Amino acid sequence: MFRLAHVTDLHVRNFAGARVRDFFGKRAIGALNLALIRRRKHRMDLLAALGEDLRARPRDHLVVSGDLGNVSLLSEWRAARSWIERIGASVDNTTVIPGNHDAYVKEVVLSGAFEQIFAAYQRADVRLEAETYPFARLRGEIALVCANTCLPTGDLGAWGRVGEAQLRRLEALLAAPEVRARFRVLCIHHAPVMHRPPETRNLCDRAKLAEVLGRVGAELVVHGHDHRDEFAELPGPDGHRIPIVGAGSASYAGAADRCSRYNLYQIDGPRVEVLTYAHDTETGSFREVRRRTIAPAVS
Ligand SMILES: [Fe+2]
Ligand SMILES: [Fe+2]
User: Fold this and answer.
1) Ligand having the closest approach to the CA of 158
2) Residue predicted with more confidence, 217 or 21
3) Does the pLDDT value for residue 136 go beyond 90?
4) In which element (H, E) is residue 174 found?
5) Which residues have their alpha-adjacent CB atom under 5 A from ion ligand 2?
6) Which domains does the chain have, with CATH numbers?
């Protein structure tokens, strides 16, 4: 059995070293939003408590599926990396991909700063055409296939896009013999289906991603972004259904059904058990709040 922990949407707050000139355009609005709303919505003490729980939880691998920061500051990402290090997660057994909040500013995205800070957590076993995304990490019977849905949107939207070129490489990667022979877990930030409108916060080319998955398949898709537990399915090849699991935010401080949480996937052949651990406000500790078994399904 392979135990894959899935943490997402840390939304770490850290302005260390940031300069006034860093706060223009979308980052200014994001910082204002941070000051007025997100400070209450995302609590760093909950993230620290989640880290303590995760440190003691046996696992084979940890995937962090984006929104590590809020406004794409290097200080946020370095603080997020320190959090990963503190929970005793090794670079070989931890994988990190960006979210839309990690792609707030075009210049920062073009600089590749996120990929530099998390380079060791993106060290690939398979990568096509020397492009950063997608990439695959092979761990025993598991292939973690990681794609990037995030780009500087140029507007205030939280939408994402995989893009034609990455979709083409993703299809080839999922079909590569050393990947296809394993249990393929596709890790992305945005959901490949729409759970909630509006379009301005969803994956705009999700229909094309669904087409790729319909042709080449994947055994499991995990994502973040919506800050809530979600489940869906997409049709795969030969009538197989592909389970799509969304995890809630690691630092969210709102209602109990969305409060700070993470998922643990116990993968045993084609069978997957999804355990959700969430913060309990009464005890201050994390407890299992949901257990879902996904068996191989053919429609
Ligand atoms: Fe988020
Ligand atoms: Fe997001």
Assistant:
1) 2
2) 217
3) yes
4) helix 164-175
5) 67, 99-100, 225
6) 2-294 (3.60.21.10)
pLDDT value at 253 more than 70 = yes
Whether 167 and 212 have beta carbons less than 8 Å apart is answered as yes
Distance between Cα 226 and ligand 2 center (Å) = 7
Cα 261 from Cα 247, distance rounded (Å):
8
| Block residue for tokens 């916060």 | 201
Q: Using alpha carbons only, how large is the chain's radius of gyration in Å?
A: 18
Q: How far is the CA of 68 from the centre of ligand 1 (A)?
A: 8
Type of residue at 2: F
Q: Which ligand is nearest to the CA of 11?
A: 1
Q: What is the mean pLDDT of residues 118-127?
A: 98
CA of 190 to the centre of ligand 2 (A): 7
The least confident of 3-12, 20-29, 75-84, 244-253 is 20-29
Please give the distance, rounded to the nearest whole angstrom, from the Cα atom of residue 66 to the centre of ligand 2. Answer: 7
User: Which is higher by pLDDT, 295 or 111?
Assistant: 111
